[in-house]
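Subject: sequence -> structure tokens, single chain

Hey, anyone have a minute? Need the predicted structure for the following. Not urgent.
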Amino acid sequence: MTEIRLKDSSRAHILIRAANWVGDAVMTTPVVRAVRTNFPRARITVLAKPWVVPVYANNPHVDQVMVYENDGRHKMGLGTLRLAKDMQHQRFDLAILMQNAFEAALLAFLARIPERLGYNTDARRLLLNRCIKMDPALKKGHLIDYYLAILTSAGLETAGRELELYPDPRDREWVQRFLDGENLSGPGCPVLGINPGATGGTAKRWFPERYAQLAEKLAERYQTRVIIFGGPADRELGDEISAMANGACINMAGRTSLSKAFALIGALNLFVTNDSGLMHAAAAQNVNQVAVIGSTDHIATAPANKNSVMVRQPVPCSPCLKKECPTDHKCMDKITVDMVVAACNAFLEKDGFSG
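Reply:
Had a minute. Here:
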């Protein structure tokens, strides 16, 4: 076992290198909480790429978020050395690397951080003096446990597996104004959202026409409109679904910041989503959700809250983990609109929405 020698004190300064994808970052929040539990008096800084900063903003276990300005001050090349120097000025005592890349270990090494903890993957063994041997069994479980094992392998305690997300109170106020303006905040009116996009190719995406049909059915039954979520790259997809859904949707894809999207998800009564970062954001806020799962590993990246259900149809080629389906996308094609509607109705009826 690779024991951490750092002792808790008000002078201790710990760096947590964040994962680079929103969903992965959300799944590391139990690690952040556990680090605080082990070092209640230490200063904890998270180093994060700009697009995942909202995951850690307002987190009570984090004292500082240090932005990795990969397209600016810290751009690859001289920027890497500049970032290492910026990190060195912070005088960290311990670096805990959630990201497995060689670069993450190199930065911690160049920053002269005395204890550098992470998995021994990607030729990093010589750069990490608290090096954790990768147990192949971890690859077969959930990513939350994969991340937490970095701590337990170093003799540190965990503090539960629950995800955490803390939207900005100003974003919550914006959400209420938005819902009031769209007449979605009345009594007996469920607030519903769909997330038809997903990063990394189309293989993870249920079909737009089926999302449109789903939205139409839910809007008609519950006398409401369905909010479409997504990033800037999903705006056209949202427009396409809105057109097919004949007025049943409000397309907010690409029209909010990520922090506002988190807050808006937190106000939903039900979220329907592909496997995505926003799926984990909903899980972190204990939002009822139906996750439509096709090509991805439903064990490793399942939504971690109890009030989530996965709708999936096992096929021989799934999970393939491919970006694009090379054949007939059968894993998604076998998931019908009626299957997803039934899962949605079960949640909404349980919460007292009769439709």
